[in-house]
User: Fold F-box domain-containing protein from Linum tenue.
Amino acid sequence: MNNNNSSCESGKAVKRIREGDDTTTAAPDRLSHLPDFIIHHILSFLDTRWAVQTSVLSRSWRSAWKHVPVLNLDSLWFRKYSIFQRFVDNVLSLRHPFKVHEMSFIEEDDEERDVSFIVKVAKYALSHGTHHLEFKLLGSRGYNDTYRFSNLFGTISNCDLKTLELVGVCIDNGFGSSRLQMLTTLNLTWCTLTSDQNGVCNPFSNCPCLEKLILNDCRHWDWQESDLKIFAPQLRSLYMDNVDWFANVEIFTPRLKSFDFNSVLKELKFSKLTISSLDLAVIRIYDEADSMEGNEESVTQRLISLFQGLSNVTTLRLEPGTIKVLFWFIFVVMKCCLCEFWLTFEIGFCSLQALSSINSEFLEQQSSPFTRLKTLIVDADQVPYLPITYFLEGSSVAEPTIEFVYYDTGYFPWIVSVASRVTQIAVP
Assistant:
């Protein structure tokens, strides 16, 4: 009898739930009741593949992905390139013809790459008013003439692009005949740059509003040494990493405020720097033995030439590798054959104290180029051997300061953390 009563009560409870009885309430679906623009904003953080899959949640979500103003297309999430291509074609044809504020297109492999398909995606982005475009052709590194910017995007006369990030694309000189009037941020990685008939690469002349430029591992198209000209009157921030494939670099950026340089100086030389007022310069010079050996004096002279072009900087940060280049003469490379491996031993800074007087005399022969220097930031371990006079004697600042940066290596000496402590001292 008790079992029958329990069954009856359970049946009534189920019935009450089905009839929407208030005595038993389910958790409300708050997400579906959010305003559409908030749902679209949430979906914009997902890869487009996952955004499309939310259409199975309910009827109200069936078309939500079609209104998302952001497209994130990455071939990594697909087993075959053909499946990725078909998916992208469907997305572009089915989404509502609204503006695409941001678009990210990433192809992981170039073995099955379809150029006509890439051109279709690129032109879709430009024709739908994209403000921020990330276009990455991984694996190509821009060495294939097929992936020229002009071939992929055509001639751009009027577009809404404000931020452009390109990977593996060949950049035409001056972006061809395109006029990127609204572009303020440009990030180029593994890209090649073409030159004019005089062997000069001047790719940014058609970007009159450019304010931030990042050049990461870019080189000349045919692997030949050429000159790089950065003409950007409105540029405020410039980051250059591994651009040593260019023989000469000329920079005309009178409004530049931040300059971050990370490369070797084996061949690279700054022939002309036009920088009126610079707030921060960070100089990281690779001190690899193969780039220094036999070129020590030349590399040091190139670094001094770079310092002369940064004469108006107010804060200068010298990374450890840069300091080592200034002490080019203490590097002795000893090679020995041991167990069929070539080992390279580098004499460290144990001999710096003995040779610091020689180095100071060498640099003191050079006049200090820094006229506005307020703060010099260096690794604390190398400060005793740094020729302070060379950096500070020409400054018009009453009391310039030196910041000592201490690095922690912890238990693993090959892992260097961020600076653990900074100490300031005033220099009379």
Summary: DSSP finds eleven helices and 22 strands in the chain. Residues 9-20, 329-358, 409-423 have pLDDT under 50 and may be disordered. The two ends are 100 Å apart (CA to CA).
